[in-house]
Amino acid sequence: MANLVRHICEFTCSGDQSQFAHVVATGQNNKGEAYVKSLDIHITAEYINKTYLSCSQVSVPQTGQLALDLMCGVYPASRCSPTKWFNYMGDANNPYVPFQITYVQHKTNSSENGFIPLNSKTTPCNEAVASELPACSCSDCASSCPWAPAEPKLPHQLKICGLDAFTISAACDPFSP
After folding, report:
1. Which of 42, 60, 81, 108 sits most deeply, having the most CB atoms within 10 A of its CB?
2. CB–CB of 49/82 below 8 Å?
């Protein structure tokens, strides 16, 4: 979840907001103060995909569900995708979103339409985000699970005239059913 927190901090507090954020609509409160009603965040598809992958298997022990079952709107985790997840995180109808945030995806982090898309560092779920913190466990991250040992090689089959020796011996056994 560190990547999600990093994302929120980055687009909220970054000194480089003008490079990737565009205020689409503003309003005025009853004191005449301006506020943001809609915002475009220019972001790379790579960043959205990596952030999604780092969170997609995280479970919520209290509910027995995956975190994305609770964080992808009408979509369960099994039908969620990076784009659906970020769209929900920016949807003004989501009770946790203060205004509309539209994520404008770019294929690369090169400048387009005067914007340099946000492409923050992401940490894969099987790596620790800091030296004092462990990586995600196997239950939350398949990449953290140990690999199964390789299948043992089967012994060479004994053949008699190209036929399996055990089949021939069973056929020749007078006590076989």
Report:
1. 42
2. yes
The low-confidence residues of the chain, meaning pLDDT below 50, are none
> The pTM is what?
0.74
Distance in Å from the first CA to the final CA of the chain: 63
Q: At what angle do helices 45-55 and 82-90 cross, to 10 degrees?
A: 90
Query: Per-residue pLDDT tens for 75-92?
Result: 999 999 999 999 999 999
Coil vs helix vs strand at 167: helix
Contacts by 9-18, CB closer than 8 A, 24 or more apart: 10/118, 10/120, 11/41, 11/118, 14/118, 16/116
The residues, any chain, with a CB within 8 Å of residue 148's CB and separated by 6 or more, are none
Could you tell me the residue ranges of all domains in the chain?
A: 2-144
Q: Which DSSP helix (H) or strand (E) runs through 171? A: helix 165-172
Q: What pLDDT score does 174 carry?
A: 66
Which helix (DSSP H) or strand (DSSP E) does residue 26 occupy? strand 21-28
DSSP H helices in 56-164: 67-71, 82-90
Per the CB < 8 A criterion, the answer to whether 51 and 59 are in contact is no
Query: What's the rounded Cα separation, in Å, for the pair 144 and 138?
Result: 5
